[in-house]
Specification:
The protein has 10 helices and no strands. It is mainly α and 206 residues long. It holds the Pfam family DnaJ.
């Protein structure tokens, strides 16, 4: 599955200027008014989603953390941390303590008796707790990623509706007339908040 860096066709260490440049270039290519292909709309929405997250320092940092804390990485690390064991048959030691005495000397024999032995039940419980922590982290990351994606999709819808309204008004009144109305403060219903409110009311009716 592509991440937002792949969507904008940039590297993860790209600057904010490079991110914005990539966003503008791809928006021109896949804008529904210019590109009539079937998947242009979907790509245009995805491009806006990616920019809404990567275009801001805070949301970009949070998204990078999600990529880093991927569950697969945790599982791979868990496999590497499996408990080591001695190959006693290799040295003909049927009792692991015999191998220990051979390596460290008989002087440790009395001390070994007093050492605490980690029981298998404790290891299993520790393993279970670790797995639960990994699952909770994965679920939390997935939930947050979904939230970020929904928010980005909403922003994309607002921007698309805003572009449509501007296009219609430019066709009806012309660019110069609209600019005059904007400078005079008589142009209403074109701000981001107004468009967002209109979109929410429309969605409630649906």
């Amino acid at each position: 599955m592509k991440n937002y860096y792949d969507v904008l066709r940039i590297k993860r260490n790209s600057s904010f200027k490079e991110i914005r440049t990539a966003f503008l270039n791809l928006s021109k290519i896949y804008h529904p008014d210019k590109n009539k292909s079937l998947d242009a709309q979907a790509k245009f929405v995805k491009i806006n989603e990616a920019y809404s997250v990567l275009g801001k320092a805070e949301t970009r940092r949070q998204y990078d953390n999600i990529l880093i804390n991927n569950l697969k990485t945790d599982v791979n690390n868990l496999k590497k941390r499996q408990v080591e064991y001695y190959d006693t048959e290799r040295y003909n030691y049927h009792d692991p303590r015999q191998y220990y005495y051979h390596v460290y000397g008989q002087n440790h024999q009395q001390n070994v008796k007093h050492n605490r032995v980690i029981k298998p039940d404790f290891v299993r419980k520790l393993f279970f707790i670790y797995c639960c922590s990994c699952i909770l982290l994965a679920v939390g990351s997935a939930f947050y990623a979904g939230y970020v994606q929904r928010k980005a999709k909403h922003r994309s819808q607002v921007l698309h509706l805003m572009a449509e309204k501007w296009k219609k008004q430019i066709t009806l009144l012309g660019t110069e007339k609209l600019m005059e109305m904007k400078r005079a403060g008589t142009l209403k219903g074109f701000s981001y908040r107004e468009i967002e409110k209109e979109l929410l009311e429309k969605q409630k009716k649906e």
